[in-house]
Amino acid sequence: MTHLRLLGAGRSADVFAIDETWVLRRTRDGTDTGAESAIMTFVAQSGFPVPRQKVRVPGARPEDLVLERLRGPTMADAVLAGALDPATAGGLLAELLDRLHAIPVPDAADRDDRVVHLDLHPENVILTARGPVVIDWTNATVGRPGVDRAMCALILAQVSLTMPSAPGAAVRATLAALCEELSASGGISGEDLSIAVDRRVSDPGQTSAERDLIHAARALVASEAGRDAAR
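Now predict its structure.
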């Protein structure tokens, strides 16, 4: 696979165009994507919206994923452009989390454990013609759904604190709607929020400036999520 055109660069991976149908995502540190691919395949079998994958691609490396080329804005872009109401965006994030956590995992050590994305936020949701599609399953694993809910809210809160007043207000409105919707499916407990905070602090992709905002972000989530998250 040579002469690929760079489409975008994230914190840990680059995305290249193969053609009009497929892209190649390659981790920069050589991380094997086998586990990520397996989780995406598993949730797709239950109808959860993830990009289609192409397997057995000649020349592919262990750090490569060949994925469907999605067309549409990210949820973040749609909210900030005024094309998607923040309340609708928050409700959609909650719906995606609920759908993901409704998929049983037969071999889970704890019967309440589910696949958790742990990086579900508006930049990782593409609004395609067939509906929202969740991307970037690098952090996904099997664990407590409550931690996944808390992480989604924490990321929103943290991002809102880095933005100017108008876009920051839109992100906080998305957070408020998310927390309100999640209250019907278990909400965000203080314990799960603490675990999410610890994971976020230890994330090597976080800058020192971002880490400095973690505890203010936690307080914002606790405020929006109510008494349970304050404990």
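The mean pLDDT is 92.
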